[in-house]
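User: Hi! I'm a student and our assignment asks us to look at how structure tokens line up with a sequence. Could you show me two examples?

Assistant: Happy to help. In each example below, the sequence comes first and the structure tokens follow. Example one:
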Amino acid sequence: MPQHSVYLWTLPMFHCNGWCFPWTMAANAGTNVCLRKVEAAPIFDLIRKHRVTHYCGAPIVHQTLINAPEELKRGIDWRVNAMVAGAAPPAAMIEGMERMGFSITHVYGLTETYGPASVCAKQPEWEELPLAERAQRNGRQGVRYLLQEGMTVMDPRTMRPVPADGETMGEIMFRGNITMKGYLKNPKATQEAFAGGWFHSGDLAVMQPDGYAKIKDRSKDIIISGGENISSIEVEDVLYRHPAVLAAAVVAKPDAKWGETPCAFVELKAGATASEQEIVEFCRERMAKFKAPRAVVFGELPKTSTGKIQKFVLREKAKSASAIDT
């Protein structure tokens, strides 16, 4: 981020210290452009008016821009640099941003690590790859920030790093100067979080051969169906490729036979239509059939003020629906 950058505040400053950009902008003598509400029209207007060079946001923010009417996007003939974090972003979203001509950087972290603590550092040779392959690489959680002493994927029981084979799942762990000391007045939670001398993120991931970590799911979001682990993120990735889908979230729905099955909550684009069967078949054609959702619920998804989808609300809805079914 060079000096005199023009930064648009699509990200709330209260969210993980605004991902540290309040003082970044002061340090590089940049211009702050403020926004009261995340809506496509004012965002594109401000980008044109102030020649914005940088902004940040959760995946839903970028998805809003991708799905905006084409006339709103006209007149931006310079490179806008965007940062995405929060939930693991769908590859389709990263592809959509690149098609708009925006350069996207993917970062990852938690409040406990002062917000972003790892970055999917781009390699020059990735530029030669087809867009879909480039998006897959850019969708990884990446490598540690310079200020973070360590980031790795370990088996939380043995505290040993998993092999870098892209398949063996473990938990992402951090330690270093930008990791918190602990939870205020809660020594038990602090002890659990730092068992083995590393901060346990709660995110299940694999380590890939090139040393980049890739999240598969939150430990509480993994769906265990008939003894098989199903990544909710993997199913969501497929759902986001459906042309009618604006936003999607997958949670476990209790099932008498399988224990749990995937339940998809889908928010459609304005004016778009899709049936439950159409969505299910779309998924079954693109992934192992047992991973496809068994149920699809349409409607606006509950979100936090920072744009994160509230999965805990959807889990309760799925449980209620299961109780009614039985």
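Example two works the same way, sequence first and then tokens:
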Amino acid sequence: MRDRRNFLKVAAGATTGMLLAGRSFAGIPLQGGPAAAPGKRREVFLGGRRVKVVDVHAHCQIPEVWDLVKDTKLASIISAPPRGQMVMGPERIQWLDEHGIDVQLLTINPYWYYGADRDLASKIVRLEDEKLAEWCALHPDRYVAMSAVSLQFPDLAAEQLEYAVKKLKLRGASIGGHVDGEPLSSPRFDPFWAKVQELDVMVFMHPQSAENVVKKGGLDGRGDLPNIIGNPLETTVFLTHMIFDGTLDRFPGMKICAAHGGGYLASYLGRTEVACQVRPKSDCLNKKHPSEYMKNQILVDSIVLTEEGLRHLVAEVGYGQVVFGTDEPFNWQSNVDLILNSPSLNDTQKEAILGGTLVKMLRL
């Protein structure tokens, strides 16, 4: 809970100062790398041909949600309505133009409302989804969005997803890596996963500092370790549960995109690959090798930040499973140039990562 609270406070504080300065990032390339001049849209080409760039990883918040929670116990978690660049506005579109991004997938997290009761959770998600749908309808060529469903009630989450996809034209679900420490591979969540498969939509998984894995205070200290270590750790644990507990076999049509390069899983896949054969107490339920799920049902974003990291990620999971992400509005310096300038990728692979795979999966 502490890290989720800090996340929201930092997000609001970091962006509010720039908004009050009157420029709201105008002309300042938040993610790093070459950007177009202010007011000019950057276009991305490969082999002289224009390609569509799709950003799978972008944060936002809905200010109106504060009115729903300000008089509840959840108010102490988020403290105040979100402001600045976490709120959708013209500056966000200008940022896309400057950084060569054609379409951005919006997701709402952290998932602080996993602690809400059923009625409040229903109201929060409905409001968020309808506001996201309004923004996407105003800018249909630039934005699509995911529903941040109430996973603490799996049947409700399934209903929310169906409404969001069929009525609001959202493109899937955004989820955390656990609900109050319970792995999402638990059979209790099967109604949600069944609905995901039925609707044939993607799920985007974003971690929340591995509060389910690390003891309280275990990541205290310099370097923002809950984010730097906790986030990829939570993602790794989530994906490994989904594989070893047989969830991906129960729902073979399901597709999950995991943030931050899929955590540590791809970086140390060999150990996971042989665990079920060499560990006598492994008790694995998966029907295939972990690498097969990584090359079929699991996608990962490109936020690994280095050329060698990108090369290794593609080598382990395949270029068709890696999709471009920025983490806007947070300054992780993840940009199209890492993909465009990669000496280890050919143009076909670059186009797939930059947007080709997501154009098909998100039905753009």
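Here is something you could point out in your write-up. Residues 146 and 224 are 27 Å apart (CA to CA).
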